[in-house]
Design brief:
The protein is built from twelve helices and seven strands. It is an alpha+beta fold. The strands form three sheets. A three-stranded antiparallel β-sheet has the order 5-6-7, with no helix packed on it. Strands 1-2 form a two-stranded antiparallel ribbon. Strands 3-4 form a two-stranded antiparallel ribbon. A hairpin with a 7-residue loop joins strand 6 and strand 7. Helix 4 packs across helix 5 (146-159) and helix 9 packs across helix 12. The protein starts with a strand and ends in a 31-residue tail after the last helix.
């Protein structure tokens, strides 16, 4: 007893078992109502003390209810530990940021840079909506609800102006973080319930095709700048082989081989960008114009003769320069590296019909 005040203990009794803990509060002995378990005072200190005691009681009953639902072992000591637990609070943005930091070390093995970039964009959108919806910098997982998911969806559609398929990718990023929280017991419900069909549907897209006539415009066009000439050759090589940007940028002399008839082939393993990160081997016969492109750049890097067969700028620069090529060739379509897969051109065409491609 100090200054006429006594410390207050919280005691829990379950099936005859008892445990107690000091709640770091004290009260003048003459003001304590032992029967009601509260202060009899009307002053500010007494009111605040009674409010604190009431909040502890409410939280204790809530924890007891949660443990009952989980069919967990319930003891007085376990309840008091849960009540005064100082475990780290698991927040939505905090968890997502930690995951992205961990995944950065796995780039090239489990994740692609583009995937982590999408998670970063999703994080920024979540941060904005949490601040607007909850008026907080971050929230714990159990604060999530269906109304917030709707607000996040509207932000992606209206503010970010995402298409349905891109929105689905962002929602999938968020869903993965929700899955991690549920697996670790930080979230006991699924905030996406009833919304999956709408949020995770994919729409069929209509790719823009490049016609043979449009392709021939690019072939016959001479460019005065080296950068456009390089991009033109790279684009045509992709068209003639059907290979992706990453496959061509990693094409090495060792991947080239000849068959019994002397025909040059590309024999190369490629990475399929799928969830399983599977690999497969592609065998591509090279038409004469494609061989001519390889010959044109043979030995382009004397310091690395076993390196990439073609000099290639970044994917972003490639698409930027292809826009210039489209304008110069009077092609009123959005020309990209990926679009070389959507060309109305059959590889079964005879080589003599393609001789004008590249000399």
């Amino acid at each position: 007893m100090k200054n006429g005040e006594a410390p207050i203990f919280l005691r829990v009794t379950i099936s005859g078992q008892q445990d107690e803990i000091r709640i770091q509060r004290s009260v003048p002995v003459k003001l304590w109502n032992n029967q009601k378990g509260c202060s009899k005072g009307k002053d500010r200190a007494s009111v605040e003390l009674n409010s604190y005691i009431e909040s502890l009681t409410v939280r204790l009953y809530r924890i007891h209810k949660e443990l009952l639902c989980q069919e967990a072992l319930i003891t007085p000591k376990h309840l008091l530990i849960k009540l005064f637990s100082k475990e780290e609070r698991r927040t939505v943005l905090g968890t997502m940021k930690k995951c992205m930091e961990d995944w950065t070390a796995l780039i090239g093995r489990e994740y692609q840079k583009s995937t982590l970039s999408r998670y970063g964009n999703c994080y920024e959108s979540l941060e904005s909506v949490i601040n607007e919806f909850y008026k907080k910098e971050d929230i714990v997982f159990n604060e999530l609800n269906g109304e917030f998911i709707d607000a996040f969806e509207m932000h992606l559609r209206i503010v970010r102006k995402l298409s349905q398929n891109t929105l689905t990718k962002y929602m999938s990023c968020f869903r993965k973080i929700i899955g991690i929280a549920r697996d670790n017991g930080w979230l006991t419900f699924d905030p996406f319930v009833g919304k999956r069909k709408r949020l995770f549907r994919k729409e069929e897209t209509c790719p823009t095709f490049l016609t043979l006539e449009e392709l021939q415009r690019i072939i016959s066009k001479d460019f005065s700048t080296t950068r456009l000439e390089h991009v033109k050759d790279f684009f045509l090589f992709c068209c003639l082989t059907g290979m992706s940007y990453i496959d061509v940028t990693t094409l090495l002399p060792v991947h080239l081989c000849r068959d019994n008839e002397g025909q040059l082939w590309i024999h190369k393993s490629r990475v399929k960008i799928t969830a399983a990160k599977e690999t497969c081997t592609s065998n591509v016969p090279l038409l004469a114009p494609a061989v001519a492109i390889l010959e044109k750049y043979k030995g382009w890097d004397p310091e690395n003769p076993d390196g990439p067969c073609l000099p290639v700028p970044s994917n972003q620069k490639m698409n930027e320069y292809l826009k210039e090529i489209a304008v110069l060739c009077r092609i009123n379509k959005r020309l990209t590296v990926h679009q070389r897969r959507h060309i109305e051109l059959s590889l079964s065409l005879k080589q003599n019909s393609l001789q004008r491609f590249v000399s």
